[in-house]
Amino acid sequence: MTYVFPPAEIPSVAVAGSDARFPVHRIYCVGRNYAAHAREMGKDPDRDPPFFFMKPADAVVPDGAEVPYPPQTENLHHEIELVIAIGKGGRDIAEADVPDHIFGYAVGNDLTRRDLQLAARDKGRPWDTGKGFDHSAPISAIRPAADIGHPETGRIWLAVNDAVRQDGDLAELIWDVREIVSILSGLYTLRPGDLIFSGTPAGVGPLARGDVITGGVDGVGTLTTRIV
Ligand code: MN
User: Fold this and answer.
1) Domains in the chain, CATH or no CATH each
2) In terms of Cα–Cα distance, which of 13, 23, 29, 53 is closest to 197?
3) Nearest alpha carbon to residue 167 among 117, 130, 205
4) pLDDT for 13-44, tens place per residue?
5) Alpha-carbon distance 206 to 214, whole Å?
6) CA distance 211 to 166
7) Is 79 exposed, middle or buried (0-12, 13-18, 19+ CB in 10 A)?
8) Rounded distance, CA 226 to CA 91, Å?
9) Closest among 56, 216, 64 to 136, alpha carbons compared
10) Cα(3) to centroid(ligand 1), Å
């Protein structure tokens, strides 16, 4: 088979303790999955079914990299999140079977053009331009579940220029990892290489050129990004 031009390279994420990389298939994201963050976004937290949006697979940015301040926004926000890395695909996955489908976990930053997202939200339009832009998914190396297990509690935090802005705990997730993967697998056939950003705790806020963002999830890792 030939292509009319060379295909784009497969986006991938580093794996801690391995030279082999995790090839990214899709990036799914959960909206408003911590009560305090739902409230700061002007919404009541609830147990309505979780909702999802996507970023392009090639939005991934490795730990330690620089991210150019994106165009068409004056309000770029950080959102620190636990990321679930799928290693075995499936559909209609039962909650009890979810751990078998998880390759590992990473720390991600769901970078958001908040002004575009809120304008779209208020007009009932898709969130794509606010969420799914180039370089919008900084992500740490993936820690295999074979090494760290399946974290259900642990501090999740983010600092900008060493000032802590987000400080929560995985125990505060409205929908936990098993529920997220099970429900998502009823909407899409999950594939190896899928990443799922699981939602952010309260404290989201604006970023400026020159900011150094550090964040982490206890037991998973840390992520550092500089906005340029
Ligand atoms: Mn998010």
Assistant:
1) 12-227 (3.90.850.10)
2) 29
3) 205
4) 999 999 999 999 999 999 999 999 989 999 88
5) 14
6) 15
7) buried
8) 37
9) 56
10) 36
Residue type at 157 in one-letter notation: W
CA of 211 to the centre of ligand 1 (A): 19
CA neighbours within 13 Å on the CB side: how many for 116?
18
Matching residue, tokens 């999140």: 81
Distance 204 CA to ligand 1 centre (A): 9
Ligand 1 centre from 131 Cα, in Å? 8
Distance from residue 79's CA to the centre of ligand 1 (Å): 6
Question: Hey, how many other C-beta atoms are within 10 angstroms of the C-beta on 70?
Answer: 17
pTM of the predicted model as reported, rounded to 2 decimal places: 0.98
Ligand 1 geometric centre to CA of 198 (Å): 7
Token reading at 73: 């926004």
- Cα 85 to ligand 1 centre (Å): 16
Name the 3-class secondary structure at 37. helix
Which residues are CB-contacts of 111 (< 8 A; sequence separation ≥ 6)?
Answer: 67, 70, 76, 77, 78, 79, 133, 135, 136, 137, 138, 207
Radius of gyration from C-alpha coordinates of the chain:
17
* pLDDT tens track for 147-170: 999 999 999 999 999 999 999 999
